[in-house]
Amino acid sequence: MKETELTFEQAMEQLETIVQKLEEGDVPLEEAISIYQKGMELSKMCHDKLKNVEDQLTKILTGDEEKDFSLQEEE
Predict the structure, then answer these.
(1) Exposed/middle/buried for 25, CB within 10 Å: 0-12, 13-18, 19+?
(2) Res 68: pLDDT
(3) What pLDDT sits at residue 75?
(4) Contact between residue 42 and residue 11 where contact means Cβ atoms under 8 Å apart
(5) What is the DSSP letter of 3?
(6) In a domain, 36, yes or no
(7) Where is the signal peptide (predicted)?
(8) 29 — pLDDT class (breaks 50, 70, 90)
(9) How many CB atoms sit inside 10 A of residue 18's CB?
């Protein structure tokens, strides 16, 4: 499965596994570097997904949906 096809939750699970492996310290140096690089890619992907969601929420809250939400709250 490509990283771009991962859900945020799947990427976070993989990232947690990588962190655990690196914290154990039983990984050969070359493998640790490879694992670390994969972790950085997953971290960036998670950050990008969160930023995308934040941008979508900002658009919703500053667009017509905010007006509809405000009207519903006043009733």
Answers:
(1) exposed
(2) 53
(3) 47
(4) yes
(5) G
(6) yes
(7) none
(8) very high
(9) 20
In whole angstroms, what is the distance from residue 41 CA to residue 17 CA? 14
What is the domain range of residue 47? 29-55
In a domain, 13, yes or no: no
Question: What token pair was written down for 62?
Answer: 């500053």
Judge whether 46 lies within some domain. Answer: yes
Distances (CA, A) of 8 to 3, 13, 45, 49: 10, 9, 8, 7
Where does the pLDDT of residue 4 fall: very low under 50, low under 70, confident under 90, or very high at 90 and above? low
18 touches 35 (CB < 8 A): yes
Query: How many structural domains comprise the chain?
Result: 1
d(CA 61, CA 33): 42
Tokens of 34: 């490879």
Listed in sequence order, the residues at least 6 apart from 44 whose beta carbon sits closer than 8 Å to its beta carbon are none
Is 51 within the bounds of a domain? Answer: yes
